[in-house]
UniProtKB/TrEMBL annotation:
Family matches, as CDD domains: PhnB_like (cd06588)
Domain of life, per lineage: Bacteria
Occurrences of domain PhnB-like (ranges): 2-130
Signal peptide location: none
SUPFAM superfamilies per record: Glyoxalase/Bleomycin resistance protein/Dihydroxybiphenyl dioxygenase
The protein, known as: PhnB protein
Record Pfam families: 3-dmu-9_3-mt
Annotated transmembrane regions: none
Length: 139
């Protein structure tokens, strides 16, 4: 069994995942509601929203979609995407890229459990934790 995060957005899914593909690399696959093989009776203003997107990085998947009007959007709450990184320079790179335009709850810093740890919310409202347990490369 594998577990993967699935995020919900309110019209920002495409922009968020294009940004994540820049940051993490990997393969991005996206389908809009307008591209569905079934008639989903989606309002015209929602046709270009993302029905499903998948960013594949190695064996990891991050998936998402935009909401539809019958499902009121309340933001992404109560969870964080946790990134486990191998070295301080990578932790710093991810921290800078993901925090740009967002808000930081805990600066990237050494803790009693990690070489570096940070908590932030990116400009799309996604909460991230960056955790570097073992520093294999001094930074």
């Amino acid at each position: 069994m594998k577990m993967h995060a699935y995020l919900m957005f309110d019209g920002q899914c495409e922009a968020a995942f294009n940004r994540y593909a820049e940051i993490f690399g990997g393969k991005l696959e996206m389908m809009r509601y307008a591209d569905s093989p079934e008639d989903m009776e989606v309002p015209a203003e929602y046709q270009q929203r993302v029905m499903h997107v998948c960013l594949t990085v190695g064996e990891q998947l991050l998936m998402a979609s935009d909401n539809l009007p019958q499902y009121p959007y309340e933001g992404i709450k109560g969870c964080s995407v946790s990134l486990q990184v191998d070295n301080v320079p990578e932790a710093e790179r991810l921290y800078e890229a993901l925090s740009a335009g967002g808000s930081v709850q805990m600066e990237l810093q050494a803790t009693f459990w990690a070489t570096r740890f940070a908590m932030l919310t990116d400009r799309f409202g996604v909460s991230w934790m960056i955790n570097c347990m073992v520093d294999t490369q001094e930074g």
